[in-house]
Design brief:
The structure holds three protein chains of three kinds. Chain A is an all-alpha fold. Chain A has helices spanning 2-16, 29-49, 54-78, 81-108. Chain A has one domain (23-108). In chain A, helix 2 packs parallel to helix 4. Chain A is globular. Chain B has a domain at 142-265: Protein of unknown function DUF881 (Alpha-Beta Plaits, 2-Layer Sandwich). In chain B, strands 3-2-7-1-8 form a five-stranded antiparallel sheet. Chain B has a three-stranded antiparallel sheet with strand order 4-5-6, covered by helices on one side. The radius of gyration of chain B is 31 Å and the shape is elongated. Chain C is of the alpha+beta class. In chain C, helix 5 packs antiparallel against helix 7. The radius of gyration of chain C is 31 Å and the shape is elongated. Chain C starts with 6 loop residues before the first helix and ends in an 11-residue tail after the last strand. The chains are: A mainly alpha, B alpha+beta, C alpha+beta. Chain A binds chain B through residues 19-22, 24-25, 27-28, 30-31, 42, 45-46, 49-56, 58-60, 62, 72-73, 75-76, 81-82, 85, 91, 94-96, 98-99, 101-102, 105, and chain B through 9-10, 24, 27-28, 30-33, 35-37, 39-42, 44-45, 48, 52-53, 56, 59-60, 67, 70-71, 75, 79, 83, 158-162.
Chain lengths: 110, 288, 256
């Protein structure tokens, strides 16, 4: 419950605080966000299946986000940013979709 | 601890020779981090070394700290100057908006008074009609009418890349407006700014100025005309050709829709010409 | 542990997770959730303000532009207020209204191209032996003139002259030349513009401006200041078929 409250607090902070995102970071926010979404949904599914483990969640969250951002960053330096971004998004997207579908099936039985 | 084989993928597909399907299956089958299942330690990680958690917190803290610091100092002085400029520009923009509203209201008042004063005589009402007709042609008179709307937006940017060529520029909007006139439009506006006799369309980097005011995408260029033929006539015009060309070369996106209902077009307030005066008619013996 | 969790079990786990007491790992997880929420909110934050992406130098230019606009509008408002007072004061006689109507007809006539105009300005002489100047080049010349405050513009071709007004369309003529407002013009061209020569001439000459665009197309251009430029080509107007004058609105809500 508390983490969910934390999510809400974070959203409120983001809306209320007028933060100027340094231009250097800005292109990577979307991909970091999608990577964290993947980790969050994985956690959700694990919870429903009864196998949630906080350590696994934290590690998977951080490694997901760092890895995805790193891949896109290196890709941009090499000039293949668009393609690598697409690849990362495809993989994350499949995982997100799969986990979400699994959660749906777990909750609704169909 | 027993190892459980990964579950069947959610959308069971017969294993095929298609490598991309196999790839998708593989990604989907590992969608739930396998570590979750191979560590049935549901009560929490109390037994793990607290050092690891501390280290992780430390890393996260450092990252956040870097973000905060970078977001403030170093970039700060330029950012704060820019921020105050932004503030002033936004305020000025609102002032201009208010001035425009006032000018439009006064213009409407004057027109009403003029019509009332002139309206009774034939010549008077002819004059009033002519003023309206010239006003529409010059863009000063607000109008209502059906027609079409062309929407132009920047190309999709690739993540992490900011490409100047993929943005809508002043020439693009100039060409769209030109094409609409060519197709027979009777009035044109860009995001509410009427294109009149003195209207300039000019780019300042990412911002486009119309009538000296900034407008931002998606750019809606409206025109009054025959809603049944204006869209196709536009596509065949030089403006339509231009849009199709930049769509292919730079990825700019556009669409055109017929607008069968009356839309209101504001008038572009222009009253005083500072340099141009009418040429005196040589045939007149006496200037009245 | 298996994947044969029943929906009831799943929901039970869900509610248990939501109501369980915080554990040691919860703090870190919460921190991560806060960050995610924060970043998500920043990403999805308020829609782009018009000026959000402008750099410092751009903002200065935009500010100057807005200032110009503000001055123009203030002047126009003063003029309109004076006119309105006149019309109200002279409500009994139509003399004031007549005078006002005639003045307005003159101004609108110049803007719409039905009235010949004269005044200080510039003249561009464009020789284009190869016929390389196309519609879009001529269009950009006119746009620059307008941006620099040109109040009346005329383009002379080899044998014909055309008054340039708001609705003038510029189209390439494949055989050479440019069609302006439906009239084909062939080189050499002469572009006459009435306005402040001190603003018009330099504006045309800035690097990347109209003159370099024309020269880039292979034409030779010369710009001349004139104390009197006569723009006497006329453009006819006709009553519009689809546009009709709009009555005043209570709120101007359509500004982008």
């Amino acid at each position: 419950m508390i983490p969910v409250l934390g999510l809400v607090v974070g959203i409120l902070l983001g809306v209320v605080l007028d933060v100027t995102v340094p231009a250097a970071f800005e292109p990577y926010l979307p991909i970091a966000l999608i990577a964290s979404l993947d980790a969050l949904l994985g956690a959700g599914r694990a919870t429903l299946e009864g196998v949630f483990d906080d350590r696994v969640f934290v590690v998977s969250f951080l490694s997901n986000v760092l890895l995805a951002t790193l891949i896109v960053f290196v890709g941009n330096q090499l000039g293949v940013g668009a393609q690598l971004t697409t690849a990362v998004i495809v993989v994350l997207g499949i995982r997100i979709f799969t986990n979400a579908a699994a959660m749906r099936r777990l909750l609704l039985g169909a | 601890m027993s190892t459980v084989p990964p579950p069947a993928p959610p959308a069971p597909v017969a294993p095929s020779a298609d490598p991309s399907a196999a790839l998708v299956d593989r990604i989907a089958s590992e969608a739930l981090n396998p570590s979750y299942r191979s560590r049935p330690d549901r009560a929490g990680s109390a037994r793990r070394s607290p050092w690891l958690s501390l280290m992780v917190v430390g890393v996260v803290g450092v990252l956040v700290g870097v973000l905060v610091v970078a977001s403030r100092s170093g970039v700060a002085s330029v950012e704060s100057e820019r921020a105050s400029l932004l503030q002033i520009a936004t305020e000025r923009g609102e002032e201009v908006s208010a001035l425009q509203d006032r000018a439009a209201a006064l213009e409407a008042d004057v027109r009403a008074l003029r019509e009332a004063a002139l309206g009774s005589e034939d010549i008077g009402s002819q004059q009033a009609a002519l003023i309206d007709e010239l006003g529409i042609a010059a863009g000063t008179q607000p109008v209502l009418g059906p027609g079409a709307v062309v929407s132009v937006t920047d190309a999709e940017p690739a993540a992490g890349e900011v490409d100047a060529a993929s943005r809508v520029l002043d020439i693009d909007l100039q060409q769209v407006v030109n094409g609409l006139w060519e197709a027979g439009a009777e009035a044109v506006s860009i995001n509410g700014q009427r294109v009149g006799a003195l209207t300039a369309i000019r780019s300042v980097q990412e911002t486009i100025l119309v009538n000296y005011e900034p407008v931002v995408g998606p750019y809606l260029v409206r025109a009054v005309g025959d809603p049944r033929t204006l869209p196709t006539d536009f596509l065949r015009s030089s403006g339509g050709e231009w849009l199709q060309a930049v769509n292919l070369s730079a990825g700019l996106r556009f669409s055109i829709d017929s607008s069968p209902d009356d839309e209101r077009f504001a008038g572009e307030s222009t009253g005083t010409l500072r340099y141009a005066t009418p040429v005196p008619d040589p045939g007149e013996g006496e200037v009245s | 542990m298996s994947t044969d969790t029943t929906p009831a079990q799943a929901r039970a786990r869900l509610s248990q997770a939501l109501t369980s007491r915080p554990r040691r790992g919860t703090a870190l997880i919460t921190v991560l959730f806060v960050i995610v929420g924060f970043v998500a909110a920043v990403q999805f934050a308020a829609p782009d303000d018009v000026l959000d992406r402008a750099s410092r130098t751009d903002l200065i230019q935009i500010l100057n532009s807005l200032d110009t606009r503000s001055d123009q509008l203030s002047e126009e408002i003063s003029r309109l207020e004076a006119t309105r007072s006149e019309l109200l004061a002279g409500a009994d006689s139509s003399e004031a209204a007549q005078a006002e109507a005639e003045a307005r007809l003159e101004t609108l006539g110049i803007l719409a191209g039905t009235v010949a105009a004269e005044g200080p300005g510039v003249e561009l002489a464009i020789s284009d032996p190869a016929g390389a100047v196309d519609g879009s080049t001529m269009l950009s010349v006119v746009q620059e003139l307008r941006d620099a405050g040109a109040e009346a513009i005329q383009i002379d071709g080899n044998q014909r002259s055309v008054r340039v007004v708001a609705s003038s369309a510029f189209v390439d003529v494949p055989s050479g030349g440019v069609s302006v407002a439906g009239i084909a013009l062939s080189p050499p061209y002469s572009v006459l513009a009435i306005g402040d020569p001190g603003t018009l001439a330099p504006a045309l000459r800035i690097p990347g401006g109209a003159v370099s665009a024309l020269e880039g197309a292979g034409a030779t251009v010369s710009v001349r200041d004139d104390a009197i430029v006569v723009v006497d080509a006329l453009q006819e107007t006709s009553p519009p078929s689809y546009a009709s004058p709009a009555e005043p609105e209570t709120a101007e809500s359509d500004r982008g």
